[in-house]
Amino acid sequence: MAAVRDMFDLSGRVAVLTGVASGIGKATARTLAAAGATIVGGDLDEAGARATATEIAGDGGTAVAMRTDVTRRADVDALVDRAASEFGRVDVVGNIAGVPHNKMVAEVTDEEFERILAINLKSVFYGCQAAIRHMIPQGSGCIVNISSGAIDTPAPTLACYGMTKAAVAMLTKTLATEVGRHGIRVNAIAPGMILTNFSRHNFVDEQGNVVPERLEQYHKRASALAPLGRAGDPQDVANTFWYLVSDAASFVTGQIERPNGGVSMPW
User: Fold this and answer.
1) Fewer C-beta within 10 Å: the chain N or C terminus?
2) Active site residues
3) Strand partners, 93
4) Number of structural domains the chain divides into
């Protein structure tokens, strides 16, 4: 049993994660840190990122944080380069930062379209490039990109969001075929309905305050859609991420893992 536990031990590994100020990014940072990894976290919300690092330190882990605008290649490079310069290696890169978008195709402006592409797709591409720049010489590493259940189930207003997340899935698969010979694994996570700030628009009013009735309705809708009968939470995704970067997943690459409660079951 000790050997089984060792498969999930991340001691000595350095993980670079974006989007660590809240939601899935924060849960993932804390989970990997609890498993022994050193965290280098970035987020546009610098105060939130630093708060996550402080929480990790308070739990006995090691974490640093910096302001990162993932739409800027230079910021993404600086985040990954900091891990290498400060801790000597880059074992994990998690391209987690992203934003929702809900609008009918006919109503999307050029500015909105460019913004969603920059945050949800280009940033992941930048993160992958920065990662392999360090991982190829190292001869090892794991990259995990965040896709979405929107790639499986089209719905009105989700065209732009779903397009970017489908592209992330294809980038993941293609990169996995390119860098596997260097000992690098590349996978994606396509979460289902997860209760985070991402989904707040479903249950808040115009001032951003949670409306209990709307929140209850959201939970009911998630329960009705999922065979497991509930919405997911950030920890569900973080646990999947932990598995993918652990030695337990050493033969897993180019895959789209779906913590979604069974809402979709593609094969």
Assistant:
1) C
2) 161
3) 16, 143
4) 2
Phi and psi of 266, rounded to 5°?
A: -70, 155
pTM for the structure as a whole: 0.93
- Amino acid 218 reads Y
CATH of the domain at 55: 3.40.50.720
204 shares its domain with 179: no
Q: What torsion do the CA atoms of 225, 260, 124, 24 make, to the nearest 10 degrees?
A: 100
Q: Are residues 93 and 225 in the same domain?
A: no
- Is there a contact between 191 and 237 (Cβ–Cβ < 8 Å)? yes
pLDDT digits (tens, 9 = 90+) for 187-243: 999 999 888 766 666 677 776 777 778 777 877 887 788 899 988 999 999 999 999
Closest C-alpha to 195, from 166, 156, 231, 249 = 231
**Alpha-carbon separation of residue 66 from 47, 63, 109, 154, 214 (angstroms):** 9, 10, 31, 35, 35
Task: Provide the 3-class DSSP secondary structure of residue 20.
Answer: coil
